[in-house]
Design goal:
73 residues; alpha+beta; Enolase-like, domain 1; 5-stranded antiparallel sheet; 41% strand
C-alpha cells in the first residue's frame, strides 16, 4: 500500500471554473463518473486525481450546506 501522506495537489482555476484534487502519479485512464466529474486512474486502477468542471455550480449545494452548519454553530 502506498504512503497515504503523499503530497496532494488542490487547485481551482477560476477562469475555466475547474477544481482539481490529485496526487503524484502517471495517469493511465480518465473516467467520467458523473456529468462534469472525472477521475484519473493510474496503471493499477488507483485514483490519483479528481477533476470537477463547472465547479462553482457543481459544488454550490455542498458550499451551502457547510455555510448553514457554520451559521448554526
Amino acid at each position: 500500500m502506498k504512503n497515504r501522506r503523499q503530497k496532494k495537489v488542490v487547485h481551482y482555476d477560476q477562469e475555466s471554473d475547474i477544481f482539481y484534487i490529485g496526487m503524484k502519479g502517471e495517469e493511465e485512464e480518465y473516467v467520467e463518473v458523473a456529468p462534469g466529474v472525472g477521475v484519473e486512474l493510474d496503471a493499477n486502477g488507483a485514483v490519483i486525481g479528481i477533476e470537477i468542471l463547472n465547479a462553482s455550480e457543481v459544488l454550490k449545494p455542498i458550499a451551502q450546506t457547510f455555510l448553514k452548519k457554520a451559521a448554526v454553530a
